[in-house]
Amino acid sequence: MKQRRLWVILLLALVSGGAAAYLALAYLRDRTPRLMAAEAPRVQVAVAARDLPLGAILSAADVRMIDWLGEAVPPGYLHSPQDAVGRGLITSVKANEMLLDTRLAPRGAGGGLSVTIPDGQRAVSVRVDDVIGVAGFVLPGTRVDVVVTLPPQPQLDQKVSVTQMVLQNMQVLAAGQVVQQDAQGKPITVSVITLLVSPKEAETLVLASNEGKIQLALRNTLDLADVRTSGASVRTLLPGQRASADAAARPRAPTPEAVGTVVEAYKGGVRTLVKF
After folding, report:
1. Is the pTM of this model over 0.70?
2. How high is the mean pLDDT of the chain?
3. The total number of structural domains that make up the chain
C-alpha cells in the first residue's frame, strides 16, 4: 500500500514538473519575438581602417563602416565614408577607433601640421640634440619646460652665465629629424622639436635659441602648475658660493653709535645733556 502511494506521488511530481517546463518554454517563445522587436537600433559609424598619424588626409582606404548597437552613440560620429574622406586628422587615431567630427579638420583645410594649430597659437621648431631633447623621450603630445643659459652680457652688467626657465608647460606638436651638413660638408642628423606657443612665447623661444643655449625639461602631463624661480648662475652654483652671495645680498644692520659719558645738567629750569 505504501509503495503504491509513493508511485502516485512520484507520478504527480513528474506531471507537475513537465507542466511547469512546458509553461516556461511557452512563455519564452512568446517573449523572444517581443525582445527582438525591441532590440536597440543599429547605426553605421565610421572607424579608422588602420593606425593613422596626426595630419594625415583620409582616403577611402583609411575608413570603414561598422554597426553600432544601441542609442548611446558619441556625438559627432560620421554616418558615411564621404563624411571623412578628404579631411585631415588633427589627432592621431588607432585602427578601429571611431572617427569623430571633432578629430577632423574642416573640409578644404588640408592636412599636415597646420591643421592641428588652434586659432591664436603658433608652431615654432627648434633644433635639439639627444641631451636637449631629453634623450628621445620628447614625443608629440608631451609637455616640456624651456630652460635657457645665457653667456655674460656686458651691456646688461651681467658678468657671469645665467640659467633660467623662460617657458613652462609647452605642448610638443611634432618631433622629427632633418639632415644637415657640418663644417666639413658631411651630412649630420639633427633632431627638431616643434612646440605649440602663443605669439609672445614664440618671440621668447626664438630669442632664447638665438642668444643662448636652450634645454628642454620633460614634465608630467598632468602637472599644470607654474613654478617661479630666480634662476641660477656660477655665483650660486656651489653651496659655499651660494652662501657668500646670499650674505652679500643681505642688507646689513646699521652700526650703533658708540655711547660715551652723558652728563645731565639744569640751568634756569632748562634740562640739557652733555656728552663726553
Report:
1. no
2. 77
3. 2
